[in-house]
Amino acid sequence: MGCRVHSFRPGHRKPLVLLAMFNDNQDSMKLRHRQFGFSVVEPLLYVVILVIIGSTSYFVYHAQQSTDKVLNESDKTASSIVAKTTTTNKAATTSSPSSLSTSTTSSTASNQDYLVVKEWGVEFPLSSAINSAVYSSGQYSTGSASATGGSAKLGLLSLGSDCGDSSSAPLGQYVEFRQQDVSGEDVSLTTTTPTLHDLAKTAVEVPGSDGGYGGYYIAYVPPASACSDDSATLKAATAAFQQALQGMKPADS
């Protein structure tokens, strides 16, 4: 019986080699796919992190701005309250000496000070030269006639005690009279005080609270002597009192 000998042919292993190569290519493609997927996710993670950081920074910045705004508003309110308190205290300090010297000083919203003569119901605007003015009520007579309304003897506290004692009229006086007082005066009599006829030449008629006039007139009589050696200040003060007469108006109720 004969035997069949099989010979080995190397070409028979080629299909196995191709299969291995195919498997290697598939593995390589899967690896590249995984790497590509990670390379896409990585920038997205960076973007998400940046968005979170940006949002947090904006929130902190906005909160800080809001806090600063509230603090600024609080500072402004506190400053306003301090300013109003200072102004009120200043006005109270200014009016205090006047009340002790039988005069009244009032201030309006425009910070204009007035010398209020309550007996006559009028007030005179005070400039900086006479803003410490005070007055005392008195009588005015020329010897042959008397002023019906009497006088408001003027003083100025800023010039010291000699000029601040208004009872002696160191800064002159305002005199209130009627036309009848002038008509009844005998000008032939010699007198050292200005006559009502003289005062009538520069007098200003007193306005009433209703806008009319009641037939009363007020004139300014300069001081008879100097109460201070500061002649320049005294001259400015007497001129200011004369000018204040032109701005006379009914006193605020």
Q: What is the number of independent domains?
A: 2
DSSP helix fraction: 40-55%
Structural class per helix/strand content?
alpha+beta
User: Averaged pLDDT, please?
Assistant: 78
Over all CA atoms, what is the radius of gyration?
A: 51 Å
Structure description:
The protein is α+β, with helices and mostly antiparallel strands. It folds into 2 domains: 17-94; 101-250, no CATH class. It has helices at residues 14-100, 161-164, 179-183, 196-200, 231-246, and strands at residues 104-107, 113-117, 122-126, 133-138, 150-156, 173-178, 204-207, 213-221, 249-250. The chain has a 5-stranded antiparallel sheet with strand order 4-5-6-8-7. Strands 1-2-3-9 form a 4-stranded antiparallel sheet. It is rod-shaped. 23% of the residues are buried.
Provide tags for this entry.
single chain; 253 residues; alpha+beta; 2 domains; five-stranded antiparallel beta sheet; four-stranded antiparallel beta sheet; 9 strands; 46% helix; 19% strand
Task: Explain briefly what this protein structure is.
With 253 residues, this protein is α+β, with helices and mostly antiparallel strands.
